[in-house]
Amino acid sequence: MTDRLDLVAPELRAALDYFPKIDFGAGIEPYRGNIFGAERPPLPPELVAVEHEERLIAGHPGDPDVRILIYTPPGVATAPRPAILEIHGGGFVIGNADMGDAGNRALALQLGCVVVSVDYRLAPETVWPGALHDCYAALTWLHDNAGALGVDPTRIAIAGGSAGGGHAAALAIHARDQAGPAICFQLLDFPMLDDRTCSAADPHPYCGDFGWTPEMNRFGWRSLLGTEPGGPDVSEAMAPARTRDLSRLPPAYIMVGALDLFLEEDLEYARRLARVGVPVELHVIPGAYHGFGLAQTAPQTQQAIRWRMDALARALGVTLA
């Protein structure tokens, strides 16, 4: 392991000590709360000023209502605002919409946009396509209520990291196939796209040691699919990377660390999007592992934040200060 640690960028090594030791073999519940074991610091006044609202909206027919959080910048808008549907991460099995509170407030404030975070149902209690249906219900609600929310329905982006990035990619495909609400942009941070990574005959020799391991990945995918990942019984609809036709999807931003377990599946997804004419912005962070953003002050994290904000600003037609 020492030689693998040497591959981690020096600025990112200290944050590894703060990662929780996750063993899903011992059950999920211990990780369903605040897995980092510390209270969130108080929000600065400018983020407190962002309006926060919780609602329950109708889910897919036959499914329960979906909880969403809505973040609206302070002040009176002179024109309809853009919007972002944010989908949280957590390996399909943990996490909630509240975990991105500070980040979603910052997005709303800096981009002058409405942010809606969706509290989709988790696996294994809810298998595919439950979470996809919840995310699509939130997207449809956001589009249908754009007028009341002061949102421009032609400027709705979707965003997510890790499992949230996988859900966002799946949502873009589903919305296209359903001739649903238009999505102007998909922001995919280190997205979890391909169940076949769990069964690769020749796995990457240097990826997956930190942050999110192959064992955790198999558990997450098995929980979502309700079957073993990587097999022939997994349909193309169940994993974005299995989708044969990636044409006519929204422009994409993909960022991944060079030591992330998802490196090769994300690179391949970017290549395939570009191959069918979908504009793609791709960033690979040297020496970065899955979840390296926990090193909040590291230059790699700060650069990734700037890239992300710039990409969203361009897609939404916003000028950053």
From TrEMBL:
Keyword ATP-binding attached: no
A GO MF label: hydrolase activity
Location of the Alpha/beta hydrolase fold-3 domain: 85-292
Record's keyword annotation contains Cell cycle: no
InterPro entries: AB_hydrolase_3, AB_hydrolase_fold, GDXG_lipolytic_enzyme
A Pfam family recorded for this sequence: Abhydrolase_3
Domain of life per record: Bacteria
Keyword annotations: Hydrolase
Protein name per its UniProtKB record: Alpha/beta hydrolase
Organism of this sequence: Novosphingobium anseongense
